[in-house]
C-alpha cells in the first residue's frame, strides 16, 4: 500500500471563480496602493477598478488592506507547490533553493510585473501598519502550511512521537521540522523585503530569486550535509 498522501480534490468551478475574483480585486488594490498609497485609496475605488460592486468587495474582504492577501499568498503557494512535487528524501538545502529560485523567477513580462507589484506593495506598507500586518500574516500562514511539506521531505512520519519530538517510526524531529519551516519562510521574506528597498531588476544579481538563494545558502547550508 502506498504511503504517499492522496492529492487534494480539485476545486469546484465556483471555488475557481471565487479565487479568480479575489485575485482580480487583489491586483486592483495593489495597483492603487502602489500608485496612490493605502491612505488615499478607498474600498470603493478598489471595487470600481476591479469591476465589481462594493458589496461584493466586502463579501470577500473585511478591509482594503486585506484585499492584497491573495496576491501575496499566490507566491507562497507557488513555492510550496514546487516543494510538494519533490520526492521524499531530497536534500533540503538544494530543494529549498531550487524551489525558491523557480518561484521567484521572472521568465516573462507577466512574472516580472507581478514581482514589481509586490515591490510596490511592500514600499506602501512601510507607512501603513495594517498593510504590514497582512504581509506578516501571509508569511505566518505560509510557514504553518510548509511544516508538513518539510516533514515529508525529511522522511516518513508514521510513528508515534517520542522523546525529543522524534517519531518512534523514524520520522523527522518535530522541532527541527518547525525550525526549518520558520527559517526558510523568513529567508524568503527577508530576501523579498531587501529587494523591495532597492532598484534591482526582477532578474539577475540582486533580484528576489538571487537574494533568496543567497539567504537560504547561508542559513540552511548545513542541511546539504544532513
UniProtKB/TrEMBL annotation:
<dbReference type="InterPro" id="IPR009057">
    <property type="entry name" value="Homeodomain-like_sf"/>
</dbReference>
<feature type="domain" description="HTH tetR-type">
    <location>
        <begin position="19"/>
        <end position="79"/>
    </location>
</feature>
<keyword id="KW-0804">Transcription</keyword>
<dbReference type="InterPro" id="IPR050109">
    <property type="entry name" value="HTH-type_TetR-like_transc_reg"/>
</dbReference>
<dbReference type="InterPro" id="IPR001647">
    <property type="entry name" value="HTH_TetR"/>
</dbReference>
<dbReference type="InterPro" id="IPR023772">
    <property type="entry name" value="DNA-bd_HTH_TetR-type_CS"/>
</dbReference>
<feature type="DNA-binding region" description="H-T-H motif">
    <location>
        <begin position="42"/>
        <end position="61"/>
    </location>
</feature>
<keyword id="KW-0805">Transcription regulation</keyword>
<protein>
    <submittedName>
        <fullName>TetR family transcriptional regulator</fullName>
    </submittedName>
</protein>
<dbReference type="Pfam" id="PF00440">
    <property type="entry name" value="TetR_N"/>
</dbReference>
<keyword id="KW-0238">DNA-binding</keyword>
